[in-house]
Design goal:
This protein has helices at 17-28, 57-65, and strands at residues 4-11, 33-37, 45-51, 71-76. It is an alpha+beta fold. The chain has a four-stranded antiparallel sheet. A hairpin with a 7-residue loop joins strand 2 and strand 3.
Length: 77
């Protein structure tokens, strides 16, 4: 049984459109992740929809940081 959750991650760096696309794609294809998105007007915020039974928000944060980004969990929805 899945448990859908949403978390917002603040990324310190200002990313280009290509960097946003790359990070979104890599996070979106991860285990337990349904979608990851950033809007061009909120380049510092990534919203990640995931299955909390398969991955934890701290693990998602680690994946984002593994791309050389400084990031913090802001909160969940």
């Amino acid at each position: 049984m899945s448990h859908n959750a949403v978390v917002i991650v603040h990324i310190d760096e200002t990313l280009t459109d290509d960097e946003i696309h790359t990070v979104q794609q890599k996070i979106s294809t991860g285990e337990g992740v349904e979608a990851a998105c950033m809007h061009v007007r909120t380049r510092h915020l990534m919203v990640v929809d995931y299955d909390a039974n398969r991955i934890k928000s701290i693990q998602l944060l680690g994946q984002i940081r593994s791309h050389g980004l400084n990031a913090q969990l802001v909160g969940g929805i």
